[in-house]
Amino acid sequence: RHLHRLVEDVARFVNAGVNGDLAYNVLQRLEQVIRTQPDFVVVLVGTNDVMSTLSERAESRYMRRKGLPQRPTLDWYRENLEAIVNDLRQRTKARIALSTLPPLGEDLTSRPNLTIARYNDAIRGVGEKYHVVLLPVYESQAEYLRSAHREPGRAFEGSGLMWEAILRHSILRQSFGKISEKNGFLLTIEGIHMNSRGDTMIADQVEAFIPSPLPV
After folding, report:
1. Nearest-CA neighbor of 205 among 40, 55, 2?
2. Interacting residues of 174 by C-beta distance below 8 A, sequence separation 6+
3. What DSSP line would sit under 196-213, residue for residue?
4. How many other β-carbons are positioned within 10 Å of the β-carbon of residue 79?
5. Which residue(s) pair with 40 in the sheet?
6. Confidence label for 1 from pLDDT (cuts 50, 70 and 90)
7. Considering the entire predicted model, what is its pTM?
8. What is d(CA 117, CA 141) in angstroms, rounded to the nearest whole number?
9. Beta bridge partners of 17
10. Where are the alpha helices (DSSP H) in the chain?
11. Which pLDDT value is given to residue 74?
12. For 21-38, what is each residue's pLDDT tens digit?
């Protein structure tokens, strides 16, 4: 909602996200973004990179579905993210922001979130190397969870809850907000995708990054 207000009648907002993509996949189709010659680019990618490393089954599934040429690793993620930023810097005039990854599930002490922390360290390192803006999405969401006395909150339990949420929404016509509440999450629907509160926190970070009024 915030972004819609920001860009209404004055700018074009392009959502270049693709469900399930890893940083490698984003790099492969970056030309589509570059062709728009954007003024601002926000890069938030890596949750699927993390999820692909949490089990051998997940790794196999991502490699098959996303056509990965090698096993996903933190080093490979860092390499792809650096290539994304470098290409954007060299081939556009855009101001670039990198976002840290939001928590995966709401138990900040869990293995998935310890892995998220390592990937966020990589994001910060790339941001510092290329002098781009860092959007502290993880930091703001983690602080919210701590202040709500939900540490540890409900841990990430794999993709099972995601499919259950899809069925509840499409067949039982339950709202995503209701599903989030039923699942006991504050910021996500099923431990992965943001609910309206989580979405708003990310949108607020992006809105703060883009100047208002926009430059002519």
Report:
1. 2
2. 168, 182
3. HHHHHHHHHHHHHHS-SS
4. 16
5. 95
6. very low
7. 0.90
8. 13
9. none
10. 2-7, 23-28, 30-34, 47-51, 56-65, 74-91, 111-130, 137-147, 160-170, 176-183, 196-209
11. 98
12. 999 999 999 999 999 999
Tallying the residues shown for the chain, one arrives at 216
**Structure-token pair, residue 82:** 């650096």
- Return the ∠ at Cα 72 (arms to 69 and 74), rounded to 5°: 135
CA distance 206 to 91: 22
Assess contact for 103 and 141: CB atoms under 8 A.
Answer: yes
The CB-side HSE value for 92 (13 A sphere, CA atoms) comes to 20
Could you identify the residue written with the tokens 């290409």?
87
The model's pLDDT over 134-177, given as tens digits with 9 standing for 90+, comes to 999 999 999 999 999 666 899 998 888 888 888 888 898 889 99
Dig out the tokens for 125 from the structure.
């390192």
